[in-house]
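Wait, can you check?
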Amino acid sequence: MVKDLTVGKPSLVLWGYTLPMFLSVIFQQLYNIADSVIAGRFAGEDALAAVGASYPVTMIFNAVAIGCNIGCTVVIARIFGSHNYAHMRTAISTTIISAVALSISLSAIGLAICNPVMRLLNTPQNIFDNGVLYLNIYIGGFVFLFLYNIATAIFVSVGDSKTPLFLLICSSLSNILLDYIFVRFLKLGVAGVAWATFIAQGAACILALVLVSKRIKEIKVTEKYSKFSFETLWEICKVAVPSILQQSFVSIGNLFIQRLINGFGSSVVAGYSAAIKLNTFCITSITTLGNGVSGYTAQNVGAKKLTRIDSGFKAALLLSLFITLPFTVAYYFGGGSLIMLFMEKGNEAALEVGKAFLRINAPFYCFIAFKIITDGILRGTGWMKAFMVTTFTDLILRVLFAYILVGDYGTNGIWFSWPVGWLTATALSVFFYILNYRSRKKAVKLQAA
């Protein structure tokens, strides 16, 4: 279903648009967590650590897919808001063609460098081989992940957030089922976890592309349009490339932190792996809302309805509080029980590491939520430089303080670096939002004149 986000009460429109996206990310994160839970429960602590040690590398590839997803969403949503459907058709086909070429190239590069990268990260020897095995299978299926992200971006850009929810429910449930079969019964260990993701993601990608093709045909276009346009590709790249760089540099920063953590041994790696999966559940939920805000903002920019943006911003902030509060309470007071889902009793060192990470970071989720929602407005209105400045500030401070504080406070010093980066970057995002707000006010006055 195609949905115009430029009409109706902004709060109701935005909430109705983003709720399926939020439900989608719940299922997505459930299967991400299930990977680690099943690995830790049925293949042991080393298997959990191996999946965790490879996680920052997989996130670099995921970052490219997410960055392209954001660029595609913002540009197509803006064109859709202007009702230029021929141009929108060109943008969609250009995006898909470019995505195929880029994903194949990145897969070839990834397969060539994953072994050296894992060595560079100082991965403990007892988990090295399994970590590389997981990466090889994951990267081999990257084309499916990439094209799936592009397909969901197309749905979201035309106001359809329900189809991606349906796709993710199917993908997540099948992934969890395959995880359990491959690891619990077939004893495939880490390879089973990776193959489950490969198969489930591949099936979801093919189904998503079929549905996209069907949805595009429903949008009637009378005038001629080109299948590929370098000019349109440049429009997408202006949003996608900064988003890719932002996501990639965050992932590269996480590689530096992972290298620091790997030096403490596999028990610490296992505890961190469990905690970071739980942390990612919260952050990704908010990020999904931020991406929805970008799509909503871009459609209204395309329709030149700038006054609706601030109403959407307020609605998104309120919704973000509803999302973060349960995570904060659950992680701060019940973090130990949640960490134990990933491992059997007796792994006390790993348990204490995971509990400490969650207790230190959970109270600050409301601040990072504020930043992410604000960044959604900046991205949707095309303020990509401001968006990148806030993100890089968070990244640089997080890595810098991790290396500074680890000497005096051990692993807790690494965990303290997250709030430092979040608080500073949030302050910057607020500053840029104020400038953005003033710029939009001037534009509204000029329209009225």
